[in-house]
Input
Amino acid sequence: MSNIDSYRRNFLTGIGAVSTMAAAVTIAPGVFLREVQAKPAEKAVSSKVRWGMLVDVNKLKDGGDACIEACKKEHGWGDEEHSNNKQDAQWIRKVTVKEKLTGHEFSLPVMCQHCDTAPCVDVCPTGASMKRADGIVQVNKHVCIGCRYCMMACPYKARSFIHETLTDQKPGTPRGKGTVESCNMCVNRVDAGLNPACVDAAPEAMLFGDLNDPESKISKALKEFGGTQIRADLGLNTGIRYQGI
Amino acid sequence: MFRQLSKKTYFISLVLFLALGISSCNSEQPKLMKAVTQFDSDQERDAHIALMRYDHKDLLRHKRDDTMLRGIRTKDNSLKACISCHVPKEHNGKILRHTDPEHFCATCHNYVAAQPDCFKCHVDHPVDDDKAGVASTLSNKELDALHASVVTSSDKLVDNKSSINTSTQEKQ
Amino acid sequence: MATKAIFSEVKNNGFGYWGILGVFGVLVLGGVWAFMHMEHGHFSTGMNNQIVWGMPHVFAIFLIVAASGAANIATIGTVFGKKIYQPLGRLSAFLGASLLIGGLLVLLLDLGSIGHVIEMAKGHLNFKSIFAWNMVLYSGFLGIIVVYLWTMMDRTKLAKMLYKPVGIANMIWRFLLTMATGSIFGFLVARQYYDAAIMAPLFIVASYVFGTAIYTLVLMSSFKFTGRELGDAILNRLRYTLAIFLALTLFIEFVRHLTNLYATEHHGVEGFILASGDNISNLFWFGQIIMGSLIPMFLIWCRFLKNNRFALAVAAILAVLGGLAQIYVILIGGQAYPLILFPNAEVTSSFSEGVINPYTATPAEILLGVGGFGLAIAMVIVAVKVFKVLPTTLADSATDPHHTKKI
Output
């Protein structure tokens, strides 16, 4: 890393720390409670909850690199032995956007957007591509035949196909040859009352919570400041919202 | 086209086929590896064995749907729990895999020549939790404080502007 | 059945018959090898997370679409009462069924988890999915074909009574089947090249081209090898059917591209397909349009080539190759063009954002596809020997009642 880079990094970290402290001071002590409560293990998920995520792109220090690392570590994708780099799984990726007219440039993490009316769920012949009652879109690999129609249908290119036999998967994230996979909003962590891994990897820029609960932090933030959907024109009512894009 | 086979030929081949089946029933039952943790009473153990010996595949199928579709994650629903009890962390100094004949599931499944599909996706041996996923270095309290900042400061236009600049710089 | 055509099994038993069967058998073996090779995982293929459907799917879709067109010859005889087509019905139905089986097998063998297909039988079917509908439509098509063949081949009263109703059912079913196959691409909102309902009619007319071309080739070669007489009356019907549907396909392609060009958001992808100078646009112009459509139409309609069988055979072969090119352009071209997440912006990422995705099919993928084609034809070769599929003669005097008057 060059000196200039390290200078920038220190400078940025400084900004981040200052704004964080300022924010922390303004919040009442009661707010520190974990917002994501673990549901009892024997209880089924309900449609009263709709999980969602808010990403403030302007506050992401690294355009999402930390999120990507955390996701890889949590779910174990990305270094498949035989697959070439176009065949490797990619649950979440950093997309850099430069507007042609203005030259305005920003980077953001793009993953499964957890659509309300998900095209991948519609096209899946077996129902393997599914949306849970709480809005999490995931692949039920037990019935996935590996036809890849969902990959054709996804407007966000969020899905990957596993091109080879895998061993030593993470216990919380079963993955295997010949099935399709994608970001599952860390369903294993969410059910255990934790935030998705990426959200905790970029806590200063990302927020996870219940979009159906008007009192949740994410709902309040979205109500007050708004949030953009990628390709909102498709009317998919995504669970992932962005600020600053 | 095929010539008409005589009834005699049919009968003889049927008898031969059945004899083949009976002959394979003669060998010894496979010896299963002992579970890592044992039940408190023999009664409990016997009940578990009686249930699982015949119904484990239906239970696995039923419970996988419960977990997958409805998010039910009790210990009874957990394949991880089955594995952590039935498969030792190490066997003779090596990780025991479903391709090894000593692996609890493989012992019987090899015997009946039925391949379980589970381990195409699920890990076949117990994995320590701290190796399993992300262990955040920050405490919950620190994380929450940071998350809270996402809400509060995005209303400030000045803040936004400065971070737009920073995010472009960060590109290099 | 209304005609008095006499059908007989193929009597050839020598090197000719078994040799030809052997050639297609080798193709099938090649497909089997390819399947074993790909079973280790799709990493050994040219397909990846950007080009998710590759060469096997080009062949599979081509064969399935061609199946419907091949069965169309029987429909013309049954539903529209054209007597001249009725002796052609049995071969048409057999060819339709075998092409469909060949195509479906390729599709099935390319799946990532073939074992999980059994889950669908246990009720895991999502009827919002066009794929799920296709499963029903494809198996239903095979069922109807079996009944249809029975009505054509049995002499009982019941069979004769059912001949026409089953023929109509077959026609409607085929219509739905081809439409549903086209609709696989018709309703993908995400892809710039696919979200147009015109895909359904395009696939219907294209199916007549592919099916008629393959049928013509099978009919000509089977009659040649068995020494049966094949008159110009029949061949000219097939010839002009082929040409008319070639023209129709060309017209619908024209309309499709024109509509796309009207919408600004599609300019990018249309530019890529039509004018990029890339493999895809070359294949479109030289493969599909010139070689696959214009030259065959010329070969058929050129006055100097009237009744020229060699020209017809070449036209049919070109139409088949052009059809493969057409499916390739739609399938691979549509995926090669990047998805647009942010319009009017340059986008980059580690996941091939904003770039044209290259694709090169590996030999295994091609062999798998060709294997499906080989299986379809091998099945027909066996069928004509086992069943009374081929008419003993299709000489003009036998097929065309007005034959003598014309001269």
Chain B has two domains: 28-132, 140-165.
